[in-house]
Design a protein that fits this description.
This protein is α/β, with parallel strands linked by helices and about 100 residues long. The chain has a single domain (about 5-90), classed as Rossmann fold. Helix content is about 35%, strand content about 20%. The chain is built from four helices and four strands, in the order βαββαβαα. It has helices spanning about 10-20, 45-55, 70-75, 80, and strands at about 5, 25-30, 40, 60-65. The longest helix has 11 residues, at about 45-55.
C-alpha cells in the first residue's frame, strides 16, 4: 500500500483519482473546496502549512491536481492564477532516492 498525497483533489479529476486509487492506497486528499468527507481543507497558497502537512504525512508519491478554474477570476487576477503552480515542487524530498 502506497501513501499518496493528492493536492487539489476536490474537482472532477480528484474525485476520479480518489475513486480509482482510494481503496488500495493510503490517500491524503486536500483542497480549498471541501466538498466530500474524505477531503481536508488545505490550499497551496499557504506554502508553510502545505509543506508541513506533506512532510508530516510522509507520502511515497505527491500528486498536484490543483489549478484555478474560475476563468473570469483568473483573467482579472493573473498573479493569483499563476501563483500556486510551482510551489509544491519546492518541498524537500522524503524519498530514499534523494
Amino acid at each position: 500500500m502506497n501513501r499518496v498525497y493528492v493536492a487539489g483533489c476536490g474537482g472532477m479529476l480528484g474525485q476520479a483519482f480518489h475513486g480509482e486509487f482510494g481503496s488500495d492506497n493510503d490517500l491524503r486528499c486536500t483542497d480549498i473546496d471541501v466538498n466530500d468527507d474524505w477531503l481536508e481543507n488545505l490550499g497551496l497558497r499557504d506554502l508553510d502549512a502545505f509543506t508541513e502537512d506533506v512532510l508530516a504525512f510522509a507520502p511515497d508519491h505527491l500528486c498536484h491536481l490543483s489549478a484555478p478554474t474560475d476563468l473570469e477570476h483568473c483573467e482579472t487576477h493573473p498573479d493569483g492564477a499563476m501563483q500556486p503552480t510551482g510551489w509544491p515542487w519546492r518541498i524537500p524530498s522524503t524519498s530514499p532516492m534523494s
